[in-house]
Amino acid sequence: MTQPQTALSASRIKTAQGCSWLYWCKYKLKLPDTSNDGAKRGSICHLIFELLGEKRRKGHYDKIMETQDVFSVPSIKRLIMKHARRDEVDDEDNIQLIKEMTFNGLSYDFFGGDLDKPTKELSEQDFDIVKSDGKISYRIRGFIDKLFLYKKQKFALIRDFKTSKEVFKGKDLEDNMQDLMYSLATKHLYPEYENKQSEFLFLKFELDQNAKKSGIIRMEPLSDEDLLGFEMQLTQIQKYLDGFSEDDALSNMAASQGFPSDNSFSGRLLCGFATKKGELKKDGTKKWHCSMKFDFFYYLFKNSKGQAVGSCFEDEFSEDAVPEGCTYEIRYYKGCPSHCS
Ligand code: SF4
To answer: Which of 23, 30, 112, 261 makes a 20 to 30 Å CA pair with 305?
Structure first.
């Protein structure tokens, strides 16, 4: 069996399953992607969680808890504002949301002590695991926001922060790719922790299990048998994505999948309803659409072997953005074949 090539992550697999053309554009052509305000806010919250997860910053954490204000620590305020300005989410509404979501995440069992004192507490635990043995072959890569290990109970609590405006529903509740991926990674990294559970915290909601709409989603623990089944599924996905071609890119586009029958954001919904770039809704705001639906110019960065390694939109280009040792060229993307042919 050949060695796995593509590093599989939960988001990479979800993209491939959602739309083959979107996968081709993002991961093979390396086209630039638009990041929305929600994603930018989320990355700032994650950054603060990572910093305040370090023991030497416990004083900062305590002060924020005491004042109930993330901005009460000047260095944290400066950092949030610096990133918010860079990402253009420094208006009053966005800053308020960042402050509220960050405080919410910090307030909920941030050091994992509710169950017991954890033996180990890890922030941003990264993993890059290759398994190629007999019939199973895959490579998985990613990181876990917070991982608490309790030796006595042989228990690993896997925590992921979410800043989306809806909690999981439909398929995401029963067969969740992140849950499967993180549980499998934890099994590889800490095999002695036989019991594992993933916990997703949706920071826009009340982090109280008894709340009318709770932001805490605890997944059913996965058995070894479940994880073995996932490893077999990963082996198939690995084979498909390692050999992914332009023909594959045209074979399972979201636009051909119809509208979803459950509540999930999938199928044609992924394309968005805009029929042209910049189309407005009745209230004057822009209609959302998939970032690969319409045409655009972009700069492609290539390494010394001529391989595409990244890109940026035409209006975001500056020579400083070009990675070291790379060349660049301007290119035109003519839009998604399902909508722009
Ligand atoms: S517009 Fe629809 S079909 Fe085209 S890439 Fe986006 S999600 Fe896929």
So the answer is: 23
pLDDT digits (tens, 9 = 90+) for 58-98: 999 999 999 999 999 999 999 999 999 998 899 999 999 99
Residue range 283-305, pLDDT digits in tens: 888 898 999 999 999 999 999 99
Distance 36 CA to ligand 1 centre (A): 17
Length of the chain as a residue count: 341
Going by their DSSP bridges, the two strands 216-218 and 120-133 should be labelled as unpaired
Q: Are 37 and 89 in contact (CB under 8 A)?
A: yes
Q: 15 in ligand 1 pocket by Cβ < 6 Å? A: no
Which strands form 195-202's sheet, in the order they lie side by side?
Answer: 120-133, 136-150, 155-162, 195-202, 216-218
Q: Which of 180, 193, 148 is nearest to 53 (CA)?
A: 148
C-alpha of residue 27 to centroid of ligand 1, in Å: 14
pLDDT for 74 equals: 97
Cα→Cα distances 232→133, 189, 228, 235, 241, Å: 11, 19, 6, 5, 14
Instruction: Indicate whether residue 16 lines ligand 1 (CB < 6 A).
Output: no
Cβ of 339 closer than 6 Å to ligand 1, yes or no, is: yes
* The predicted structure's pLDDT at residue 197: 97
pLDDT digits (tens, 9 = 90+) for 248-267: 999 999 999 988 877 777 88
CB 312 within 8 A of CB 299: yes
Whole-angstrom distance, CA of residue 182 vs CA of residue 146: 11
Non-local CB neighbours of 311 within 8 Å, separated by 6+ positions: 30, 31, 32, 298, 299, 300, 301
26 pocket-lining for ligand 1 (C-beta < 6 Å): no
CA of 19 from ligand 1 middle (Å) equals: 6
Every domain of the chain and the residues it spans: 37-107
